[in-house]
## 1
Amino acid sequence: MTMGGAMSDHMTRRILLCLLLFTGVISTGALRLPAQNNQPDNTVFRITVDMVQLNVAVTDKKGDYVTGLRPWDFNIAEDGIQQKVATFGEGNETPRRLADFEPGDSKPKLVQPYAAQIKGRVKGGTAVFPEEEQDRVASLVAGASVFILFDTSNYMYRGFVFAQDAIAEFVRTLDHPDRVAFYSYSRDFSRAASLSQDRISVLRGVRQTVAGDDAALYNGLLLTLKDAAQISGRKVIVVFSNGPDNASMVAPEDVRELAQSEGIPIYMISTREAKLEPVSTAVFERMTSSTGGKVYFAKDWKEQQKAFANIRDDLAHVYSLAYYPAPNPNRGWRDIRVRLLGAHLKGFSIRTRNGYRPKLGRMAAVEGSPAPPSSTAAQ
């Protein structure tokens, strides 16, 4: 390797490290950092998690959603430590405290995914929803903040216009969510339309995208996660991609861990068949499943429409659970396991994020004095 190449690799690693530190993907395990220049360091780092929020999808073997469950149907363990549910909600309802629920047995019901019921029409080669169906799917995601990330790399050349049509239709059916944002990426990242209730600006951003060059998917996804993490309430990231990543500086595992820690589900729609890109397929499946989302491989516009409808279904039928973590000395990665209780719920499957990393709180302390109260970091 030449000296210039070595210096370039070194600078790349330095930039990557700074980016990860800035986003909180890499954290230090020590509570007190060592002093420099032999000077006493009075800075204290403490970790306290205020509340952990989970989006939990429950389905049967056919993929139908299980509705009608109650807080006591769920068991949550963090690093094997049992947790007590603090708030609970289903679908688009506002989460409530446990005291607001009347004791009694749950009455689970099976709901077929709305995507399986779609009877689209075709106009000019593009599938559209009848007006009465648009009203139905629009109500499914009320209250969600949706971040859409679109692949404009040269992988998308062949189906670029069709992809724009699919995303535009998806945005039009999202009539009542709080806000929608539209971003795009190739080698560069673009915030084409910031988070807003204005659908016109989002659609304009979709139509103004142009095809680029290489694909830096994970760079773009990391920046999208950073934006979404600043927003309160329910949020989701939907990625429309047509190929592997060949230009990012960050690793997909680091992006995945950040999404898990922030509690943001990632859904991915890939227009390439899974067998064509086995490595990307494995990465996409791991990233989505571990955050509570899902990946879809849609080789034509019909499957793309169905994938978008499935995402709307998920937002409409997930359970929102939150808990205050029981005392846990672990300052690193914390494993989350959720299971269903009761013989009547056997055979059902759960999909949610599988863990998080607590954030570090930084504060100053006078040398020799008691440590100040712990800061909090909501998850």
## 2
Amino acid sequence: MKKIYLGFLLPFCMYGENLVELVDLSLHNQLIKSTQQNIDSIKKKYQSVQSNYLPNITVGATYSNTNEETASTPSSAYTTYANINYIVYDGGKKYAVYNAYENKIKSANENLQTLKNDITLQVISHYFNYYSFIAQKEAKQKEIEQLKAQYSRLERFLDAGTTTNDEVDKIRARVENANVALHESELNIQTILHNLQYIVSKKVILESGSSIDNIFSISDEKRADIKALEYDMKTLLSNARATKSSSYPILSLDNILNKYNLNYDNQNFQNSAIDSQNIFKVNVSWNIFDSGSTTKAYESEYKKYQALKSKYEYEKNKANIDLQLAIKSYNISKLKIASTKLALKASISTYTTIAKKYQNGLVDNIAYLEALSEKYNAMSFLKKAQYDLEIKKANIIYHSGKNVWEYIQ
């Protein structure tokens, strides 16, 4: 019964992830969650700053005791108070700070999109490179099978005295070299699986059949990292304006309500005492001279803005070049596929001819071994070129400013 149960579960345990599922897992990893939490932190800080600009209410109490009572100073007193404060105008600092936080949040969101695209591109590269190495491994296995068959055949001829040791040794060397290449392919496959496990935070079994959509209808847009730089520029400009606000007047309102409980030893003082008082204040302050401190602080912040603006122009131009290079690389990959198809056709034809001649003793085993290697190399090269084309598509989508994961099928 237990064997039947395990046999029933085995197909489900071996179920693999296609590229869509793999990317979806990667876009919910710990790095993405950490970045999202940082964005939430900025939003909370912004809400805190907004709350500070709303009317503030402060309450408190005071107890005092004196040894020399006067009409204005009772022997003991207990006072409670409530104060409402509101800044009406702060030289424009409030709205500059608001703009800075809003742009900071937008920049953080664009950086999150950039991170998602970077991770998606990594997963796509690992996925298609995995199948390139699988194709390489399978081609090498087939080559080894044929080499071993020829090795066994030549050993029999060696025993019969119809061939020489060097002919057998050449085949054996080819087998060993092919085995080394096979192990290298297996190592590359395992490395990719470990890298994917690191990205998605779980062991993965890949499922073939995924591809990238055609890219002919994609229009050029700004990448998310370029948009993030734009918002960073606006943040720095708002910070500069917030610094400059110190040179303007500040207007605030205060309303203070005091409640008194005064204890006089002298009853004459008691009769003249008040038990409550409300004070309304309009406060205006203006820093008309600070030895140029505000101006210098503004210039410092504005220099940061200008520096980032220069970097933005550089990165924007670089992004345009990256897109053009991605398109050229894609076109070269298409030519490479056409070329490798012809090379495979030619190598199969050449191998068929040389194999017949080799069986009839018309060519030596060097020519045969070269033809055999070329045939299987051409098979793996074609698969690699086809998988590489999918990666090149993803690169164009990335540099076009689109969400790469939306184009996986």
## 3
Amino acid sequence: MAQTAPASTKINTEITQAASGQASRRTPGRGGQRGPARAQARVAGDIRGSARDPGRAVVELDNGITVYPPEAEGEPWRAVFLEDGQRRYRQAATEEKLAAKLALVIERLEAEASNMVRPGADLIAHYLDPDRLPPDKRWSRKHAHTQLRLCERFAAPVIGAVTCQDIRTRHTQAIVNAAPTASEGQRVHGMLSAMIAAGIEGGYLANPRLAGVHWQAGDRPLAAQQVRVAGESALWVDPDEIPADADIAALGAALAAGRHGDRDELMAQTAAYSGLRWGELTALTVGQVSPDTRVIRVDRKVIEVAGHLYIEAPKCRKQRQAIYPRLTPAGYPLAERLAARIEAARAEQQAGLNPLGLIFPSPGYKHWRSSNFQRNVLKRAYLAIGWRCKDGDSQISWTWHSLRHVFCVTALFTWGLDARDVSLMAGHANVRTTLDMYVGTTAGVLDRARTATQ
């Protein structure tokens, strides 16, 4: 009867086979080794009898890998294992070479990352796949387009053809360094970090240290470091970045002298004293405004992605309500003018001229494009009131978004509203954003110190 091998004996660590039947070329007396001895890889596991041939010893490793040593000189070492539900094989001429191959297999099996054998292009496709995220956490169109552009421009040329298991930090460093500036490099690193996290979760990667890289300037010039006052948030909006009431009135008068007259002036005043963003304002319809209560329901916005306009939920996917005053601090009758414009928009809608019922439509009674509005409406007004020079350089740093800052500052310090109320009406992610942007802590620190030292 054939003898069965012991069930739980460790395999020996001695060399079990000569290299390809050739004698070792290392001979004593020739000056010894030139460097430290390199430890040869070994297939370490428990020895048992083969299921088909109990008289043949096999090596059983963790993760369900079974190794079959050669029975005769010149035969290869073989291994069999299950990966992703399929039976797979590896073989090599020597034990050392098989151990090197199995090291990659073990890495995938322990991480349950069978997709590591796929190319980097599949990793990028997995990261950009909208079905990767739950329906309520999917990216917005604009963010999805931005991530697609960053992947196509920076990630795909470096790792598109590289097997995911072969991706190293030198690849991720090359991706980040391909950005032309530090700010763009920061955006690329954010994309890369999210991709690596998605790859680990999806079984494409196993090493989180791939994200531990940063943009390196090399011989490229670095931008001057921004210095801010201690005690102020990085989001702090300097008062010089906020137009005064007289400046808003001047902008409104310049817009009123243009093609659409009072409608463009009303648009600027509404932006300054309701807090609506550009996309929310150009998507505003007659059904969203209640002239009796002076309440605006903000439940949509217009975005432009790759030349196409889309209507989607407002920023942060939070519908909100905002209120506007009867008179602005400069005396502009905002409530009266907006009510008249709503009636005019309803009449245009009934006549088929303005089918969407937009309060501030483009010349063709469609949604404005930001680039067209800037070029055809704002540029002339900016030049007329001195916000810009004819050569294109900005004399004043104010933009259309500065009108939104006017609303928040007016609501906080003129109307005396609570910061939480302003945060809800402005559509900030949380009240901390409102406090960090408009309520600086530096003045409070100095006032407390002054009081304590009197």
## 4
Amino acid sequence: MELRKRRGLMAALIVVNIGIPAIFLLVRLIAHAVAPKSYGPAGGYDIFTSLVAGVMYVFGFIVAATLGCTAGSVDLTDGMFRHLVITGRSRLALYFARIPAGLAIIVPMVAVGFTIVCAVCVFAAPTKLDYQGVPVPSGLSLTGFESWAAQHPKEAICGLPYRGGKNGPQVGVPCFIKQNGTVVILPGSSGFKHISPATEKADAVAIAKQNYLEYSRTFLYPSNSLMVKAGLWIELEAAIGFIVGLGLASLMGQRTVAVVLMIVLEIVLTPIFSRTAIPHLINVQRGLVGLATAHLEPGGLPRGIGGGGGGGPPLIPESTTVAVCVIVGWLVVWTALGAWRMSKRDA
């Protein structure tokens, strides 16, 4: 009840977890309805992965940590802690009551926002797969993708990236089709190169083979299994943010500094130490809860660390067992520290 009465905090939680994704998708829906040729469909696989890994993962952790820091310090800042102790209720019970109370607020909010994202991304998904700017049938096997490329050599050669030998087309080389259907490329300053129909098909198949791995990871809309796994993953991230923030604020006795530290942990420290190996400190880096959560990220999503995107150096290697142990350790240790501090604090 104390948390729900803080209207500013509740409004911030609703805006970040529900408002931002909903407004973004609503704008895309309106833009596509008004000018479908200028603006693509509102949903789809790419929109889903960008919102989940780039927005809901990072900001969900931050607002959950803010809620946890508030729950851990609200009684002290409002002068209510003494009145709670006078009731004779165990201090440990007072602390542990905050965990289900906070999760009862943050978990449904994250679930509502995620449900909106899933619904729009599935029902407003594009009807044709656009891979590298080329309309391609979705869900093809390697053989099927090569067969499509052989049947559409001009689209494959001119539209898909490829790194071939001296006689093959190169990435970024201009390509156009003459009126007679012949594919012509311009390899630097050496002049035009006319490709025969037989060479067209051979090059198209080679291009398809090189692009298949990336193509196989591109879909019209997210699968049911990916949506379930992604939903559980961002709920786990929010729960970690809340519980760690609760313990940290209870230990420090204030909210502001605790919130700042949680933001620094998520936005600054985790991206740096999760991708840059430091000699003799590699095991300490593996103890970061953000790195452990990133290793539990479902396949098919870009890396959430650093605001999304799969670019940059790879994550520091860590097994799934170690990642789970790190997460459990953070939850247990910060809960124990917060409960210990509340039990020893002067009323």
